[in-house]
Amino acid sequence: MKTIILGVTSSIACFKAVDLVKSLIKKHSLEVILTKSAGLLVNKTIFEKALGKGVYENLFYPGWGYKDYLRERKMAHIELADRADLFVVAPATANIIAKMAYGIADDLLTTSLLATKAPVLVCPAMNVNMWEHPVVQANVAALKKRGVFFVEPEEGMLACGWGGAGRLADLGLIEKEIGHLLFYPSRLRGKRILVTAGSTIEPIDPVRFIANRSSGKTGIAIAEEAARQGAEVILVRGMTSLEPGGKILDVKIETVNEMAAAIKKHIKTADVMIHAAAVSDFYAKEKSSTKIPSGKELALELSPTAKILEHVREWNPNVFLVGFKAEYKVSNKDLVNRARELLQRSRADLIVANDVGRKKIFGADSTSVVLVSSKKDTGCQGTKAEVSRKILSFL
Ligand SMILES: Cc1cc2nc3c(=O)[nH]c(=O)nc-3n(C[C@H](O)[C@H](O)[C@H](O)COP(=O)(O)O)c2cc1C
Questions:
Q1: What is Dmax (Cα atoms) for the chain?
Q2: What is the pTM of this model?
Q3: Residue range 227-242: mean pLDDT, rounded
Q4: What is the domain partition of the chain in residue ranges?
Q5: CB burial of residue 360 (10 Å; 0-12, 13-18, 19+)
Q6: Catalytic residue list contains 95
């Protein structure tokens, strides 16, 4: 049985954590730590009743003596941190997020969080203005970069009477994420996965370039998911406005040639390459070294760029290779046929094919793809994170 340590902080949503406790104890061994303020907001006996045992609150218990500690060598914050298969903070206040971002350890929960090696999942809940405050967003981004997982708050009516993002995420969603983190954290441990994302750009002159509508969401979701499953991830990304979370080596490039060079540098030691970037198909044959004057007609001569996917096998014959194929308004049969042609041409193990003309896919949170291998083709739709999990399940 896996052990979850649940930290409950003093958001008004801490009442919902009681239901989370009732549900989690059915499947897991559970310990609860309340912050001092959470204990003021909800009577701890409500948690104790749901949990069937006492909750943890204090770093120093009344009447503690250092000799007891030296004799027993047992300190709650180290013991709890050590026993955790997963540490969950739900609900998480702006305050705990800030403390975690800065490594502050001034109570039992923050000290245990600093002492744990277990994956940490944070489920924020707060007023919309607090959630949108730049310092909260910066702290969340810093924690994500360090590998802390988040189930982001939902939009809706908030307890404070305001509407907007800040509601604790649906408990079902939080439990799903808990199940996922308990099951997956070591699935890809020891694997090196190279992921590409975003659009490459090809300059026309010093200020203009050719690019495409790829948002980079799918590639970044795959990189984050692979890191979550314990892989060592190298993300080679072109133009995207998104910042990846998780422990990821982040390599930024602009042109097709730069992307190819970065791939060549990292592919030799990679076990897997997932090429989700939307690489430019053309580059301007003549690049002006000065800004081309506006206001008059201009003919651009374009040349085709090298197809990176078709060269990967030359650089590493053993890598498990996943390519992407974007088509525009074709039948399902043509989509699969063209993906299978690419599969053969590039000697890839899997092609993720989608039709970007069917519905809004660029920049959307969800997608619909067909996973084409030499043996079969499998339709898959859902959020880009869900589709990422499906793709990684092929490894
Ligand atoms: C009734 C009430 C509701 C609160 N709800 C929230 C909340 O939803 N999110 C939040 O970040 N802070 C909320 N706060 C503020 C926190 O309780 C406060 O920042 C506290 O210092 C956080 O301490 P803790 O993180 O140690 O629990 C609330 C305060 C009160 C009095």
A1: 86
A2: 0.69
A3: 92
A4: 3-183, 192-392
A5: exposed
A6: no
